[in-house]
Predict the 3D structure of the following.
Amino acid sequence: MKTAVMTDEARELYSRATTASLTAQLIKRGLRTRAISNIAPVNPNTPRAFGPAYTLRYIPMREDLATGAAMSDPNNPQRKAIEVVPAGHVLVVDTYGGMDVSGTFGDILVARLRVRGVAGIISDGPMRDIAELRKMDFPVFARGNAAPPSYASMLAADAQVPIGCGGVAVFPGDIVIADPDGVVVLPAAIAEEIARDAVEQDQLEAYVRQRVENGDSIIGVYPPNEETKAAYQAWLAKR
Amino acid sequence: MKTAVMTDEARELYSRATTASLTAQLIKRGLRTRAISNIAPVNPNTPRAFGPAYTLRYIPMREDLATGAAMSDPNNPQRKAIEVVPAGHVLVVDTYGGMDVSGTFGDILVARLRVRGVAGIISDGPMRDIAELRKMDFPVFARGNAAPPSYASMLAADAQVPIGCGGVAVFPGDIVIADPDGVVVLPAAIAEEIARDAVEQDQLEAYVRQRVENGDSIIGVYPPNEETKAAYQAWLAKR
Amino acid sequence: MKTAVMTDEARELYSRATTASLTAQLIKRGLRTRAISNIAPVNPNTPRAFGPAYTLRYIPMREDLATGAAMSDPNNPQRKAIEVVPAGHVLVVDTYGGMDVSGTFGDILVARLRVRGVAGIISDGPMRDIAELRKMDFPVFARGNAAPPSYASMLAADAQVPIGCGGVAVFPGDIVIADPDGVVVLPAAIAEEIARDAVEQDQLEAYVRQRVENGDSIIGVYPPNEETKAAYQAWLAKR
Amino acid sequence: MKTAVMTDEARELYSRATTASLTAQLIKRGLRTRAISNIAPVNPNTPRAFGPAYTLRYIPMREDLATGAAMSDPNNPQRKAIEVVPAGHVLVVDTYGGMDVSGTFGDILVARLRVRGVAGIISDGPMRDIAELRKMDFPVFARGNAAPPSYASMLAADAQVPIGCGGVAVFPGDIVIADPDGVVVLPAAIAEEIARDAVEQDQLEAYVRQRVENGDSIIGVYPPNEETKAAYQAWLAKR
Amino acid sequence: MKTAVMTDEARELYSRATTASLTAQLIKRGLRTRAISNIAPVNPNTPRAFGPAYTLRYIPMREDLATGAAMSDPNNPQRKAIEVVPAGHVLVVDTYGGMDVSGTFGDILVARLRVRGVAGIISDGPMRDIAELRKMDFPVFARGNAAPPSYASMLAADAQVPIGCGGVAVFPGDIVIADPDGVVVLPAAIAEEIARDAVEQDQLEAYVRQRVENGDSIIGVYPPNEETKAAYQAWLAKR
Amino acid sequence: MKTAVMTDEARELYSRATTASLTAQLIKRGLRTRAISNIAPVNPNTPRAFGPAYTLRYIPMREDLATGAAMSDPNNPQRKAIEVVPAGHVLVVDTYGGMDVSGTFGDILVARLRVRGVAGIISDGPMRDIAELRKMDFPVFARGNAAPPSYASMLAADAQVPIGCGGVAVFPGDIVIADPDGVVVLPAAIAEEIARDAVEQDQLEAYVRQRVENGDSIIGVYPPNEETKAAYQAWLAKR
């Protein structure tokens, strides 16, 4: 797999669209289950990530297979994934529904992913070495903290297969966008279109927010009726 | 419904009483289930809210009714509540036990409530647009973050009815007090009396804390025996 | 029970070993269930605690026994524990699996423990008066916040018995080490040996991290093969 | 409210359609969230109920209001609902997400509902007096058993409002159908149409089941391709 | 400890009182948290047990201590409890909040308890060898089934201490009564009085049930008003 | 993949060994996490199944992919698995941690598997058409009941990959044994040896049970000391 190709325009849209507007656009298209909630950036100063999904899947551990020694095997799917996930991709991890007793990755693996140019990490389980992760300029989204290594409760099963992450289906190549509200997973075929509409919605809502801050009622303004839409167009033209 | 009436004295008590002491006073009166735990201010710089409760109730969504378009209906109970909740009230939201996959409100609705003079928002579900909410000087207490709009998983059912919020019964007009320890819901008829006793308890505990910091044992001091109570009265008199 | 005796060397090891490496060393010895996850320091500026465990156990409350008045009894196991836990020990609390509706301790009890020279507090339930706790230079690790006093939902049953805390068996005298990744509980007999190996592992991993930051692949480096181990020894010798 | 009116044809369809086929028909129409799972008939000999929904809503209790004495109030929404729910209706109860510590109803209230000609009871919480309920020829669907009366943990708030039951939105007048697979809630406007298609699907599946029992592969047979559909029509014609 | 002493009258009351009425009597006395819900007799033909509580407490396992070999130690609290729990007592087990991955007891330990004349077993965790337990004429109340022995996830810590079972505080000597609705735990000092009132309530409710079966409304009848109470007295006198 | 090969001796052992003894033997070998608890045969008259595992994996649904129409695709992993799982194998299903809102299979798919000679079905989610399943002489182990088809909440992802089922790692070819206590998953390489030891343990425990029924204490008898073991050998010899 080579480095992810995204048009510059797509990249620009993904870098701006809020997950709040993206989910609204997804629901318009009948997709209500594309967002991971209650997930947060480990380092609050790196609150955004986006890129095509590269998936990694864990299953529950078996004591004889889940050992520190097994991590030396270059074919271990976890270690392999870390070396082959292409730059620009987001590594999305299925920790079997969020096994909360072991850390998905620690500082060394995260540092390797950062050096390799990966766009970010999403896990529905905890992270370890979080004091170190908080110092890195690299977006890691996870749920909670746990000291033990992944093999305390999990085994890496395979990579680049369809997975569930935080209850959301994720296919390799889906476009993943993460911000402080959570993580949204866009089907690749409609990702750019949805992001475009979301950016437009964000702009409209910036206008609406200004109206509301100035004292306007939300009735007719949010959602906007025809009059508000016209006023918005006028406002846009004037900018 | 007109703007909430609270005597100046009541307002002063509600602005000072800690939820920790309020719950102790409630238990003295046989009320053990008046506190919402594990709820936090979205913006840590606005760590306190109080006022009479105005309630809003959600039920689980139904796909044909829970749409963005439905939000344009001026009779939608959510939109209506936002325009009619009186200034000085706290909007308390029952999200059907804390549906954690959609945001109760986003920045526009919260901005409108702030402009309208509402005293704060309490939800047992997540919020969205939390990056924006963190910038507002307005108390919003919630559980977690979620990008999707409320209608991703919920429908507004009605307002100003008795609700449950975070497992606690809330009646319209109950006095709600929120601080970093959580949210306490006081029956209206005894709210002022309880707050008065809580403020007194807070003062006694400030004295006890000082004694403890100076090296005294808690035995006889906390809870205070007659001797400690007398010493406290002397200390009070001297201040 | 007298003040905990730890050799200076042990103390030095416990003050440095990360919980991440400690858990890896424990798994090597067949112990996978020695870490409490999703527990955090209430005050982020006091992110580390260690010492022998002194245990306190709660059971669910019974309304006639769990009252504020009952707290005056000097034989109440909670109050007694606070006065007798030896300096240098960590007070580890079993809140019956994490009853999340009442605070384990508030600011007065925590202040007393701090003054008495206790090394820290670990609870699998919430804390109260957390605004005050955040100001203290004292390590308190807990799960969440709750305004009500402990007796809102719990009764202190006894102290210095084997307990479960956050799903982990804790025996009096076990060595407890807490940092931002969580809390690890070491059997007393092997605590020093494990801490020594963990500190060594931490040092090796600092070297590995440096290699990775410099662009090395993790293959052969983490876990280290013989070549990497030799290079590490050379690096150590040069320092 | 008068006795529920359902055409004889609708009644006949509702008495036969399986909840399994009803949910498949609902998903065809974009409605995926119309079924309550893991709910079972208390008496396995009364495994089916159907009729228009009459709703009852509980909130969490407050100790001073939730007492045995309060049950004497003829305006208590629970007691009132039991006397006014029309014959032929199904009483659907929202127990605030399934409070599992108190029984929704006991044998006396259930006996009254049976005598009054009510079609059945659905609760997302437990029942009490279940030994008695198991002897009655009356369909009660619930989750588990609990000895305490409803007021041990709940307060009746109101009736005939939109509710959630087992995570499903239920509006008064919705058609409710319960069988051993669970409970399905049909929007009133499309209930008869959906039931008709479900009965047809049940018939087709009886044919498919026969084919499968005779050794046919499911490929092309289930779901049926054109050939299988034609064979089904021929089979139907012959019956 | 010698065989439990209960007066013949107390025994007779405990053998008849339903847990449904016992909980109503407890709430009258301010005790709302004395019932374990969603617990069921493993053998439905032995649906009732009562007697003074003998308590056994488990904590989470530690791999080096929780082994089959450790079961040979005659001081193992589990093994010891089984040999010393007095005849006529109910063995009540705290499985650390219901660890659902290992069976509390299997057929051999249950057979031993039955032979020893123990009155029954209550566990908030699962049982193993349930096919055998279903054949025994002995009341075992538990939650679910699990094949592994207790030491797969638990360690016996001690016996005859205050415990929590299913979220309910249980003290040694409390009177425990179990029937198909669940398990109720009565404080020893008021157990007989509560049972007497519960038996009386059961009798009144038998009368009320008869009225309701004959078509009477519940209004004024349940709860009974003065008129109904007088009619009940007349009915009692006639029997 | 061809029909599973098991020696006649292995088959005989697997047909007899209880899951209770199998788990004890597994723990002796350091494997504590090989049992699925709280899973039950849908038809209590088919309480046992065994055979090599054939695995099927679901992920959460995506609305545009999870439709009834998609079930017609012969490459749908669910439909394909049903036609290719070899006779004698047990189909083990990972429903993403037990999604409890849709039925894994209904009567037609189960009937097909039965006709094809499959040894049984294990799912960590619910089943649908359970009234029909209860009538079939075929072992289906599952958790609960749900009317909706699998695609209401799930998508079949792939088959014959390592999965988690009920929190237990399952590899294709592992030996699966199910009885009323739950489901045990044996690593293929040691399955026969473990089953042999479990059968022997079952026999010893039958002897111990007899001793206990005759009034012997468990001390020295269970676990058996040398004397008991000798008596057992004598008893065996006499049979």
User: Anything to note?
Assistant: The mean pLDDT of chain C is 96.
